[in-house]
Amino acid sequence: MSALPNTHEVLLRNLNLVEGRPALLGVSDAGLLPECPVPGLAMTEHAGLWQSLAGDTVWEGCYGYEPEPSQGGSYDTVVVFLPKARAEFELRLALARYLAAPGAVLLVIGEKKEGIAGAIKQFSAVAGDVVKVDSARHCQVWSGRNVDALSRFRLADWLDWSRVDCAGVELSVAGLPGVFSVGRLDDGTRLLLETLAESPLTADRVLDFACGAGVIGAWLHGFRRVSGGSPIRVDGIEVQAQAVFSARQTYLNAGVSGDIFAADGLAAIKESWPAVVSNPPFHSGVKTDTSMTEQFLSQVARHLAPGGELRLVANSFLPYEALIRRYVGPVEKLAQNRRFTVYRAVRKTLG
Prior knowledge:
This protein is α/β, with parallel strands linked by helices. Helices cover 28% and strands 30% of the residues.
């Protein structure tokens, strides 16, 4: 069995602090759950982990920040694992205050390098006199009580809308704390959209892999409308719960035709599309991690129709050109600047 994340190991070391039925917010490794003596609620933002939790007959699984109404105020201890995005901590803390019974134990666990010290100021504002109860494995554990319980929690109340204007198309984009590039159009996506305006897709069905808040799909819909083209359907795949929620709201607001799938990659997806676009992630926390994109490139050809086209933007230093050629087919660079490169590839004939 592989080692658990530091924050999970530190919780196991402090199980004496857990009273009654627990809720664990931000679980990143399902291996934690069998080690906990009393089952409860396990919340994760990761679609793959959530799907595995959904089949657990002991623990309740919760995908992101959309609990069942019956779960409010029903947990004796709520553990908040510090999220990577600092802005998300307030959201996760609000969910904890909603799920926890009045006066219940609240525990915050996080790594020092991820800003646990600063987060405790926010924790103190809603949990009374908080106390540091442990420091181990580069983590800290802080304890407080649910002295300011919430009787209502709606994820839609946390939505933040921003305007995006690119290549003659304006749209509104929904965002939530923790979503990539929330509140702005990142430079890589802008370059990709500009090339899509200069060399438009001819396909009427497109998949946006790692779709984030739905910017690309909403833009493609808007571009077809302003250019007088035929309607387009853009489906999206995204692993993070907040991004899935945001993308669906962005699509609804813009009138985009398409589904947003909560999935960890393409393995469970059966459909194929005549075109796939993507601005895939290359970070895991603060570290460069290209494994998700490499897995995507190794699988995407099976989801491209014969002669199907891939458009992908990536940081120029990442070694994707050879991988695209190997797994998809002939590749060209449509645009390149100091930071980003936009690739176009056509699916080769599969043997």
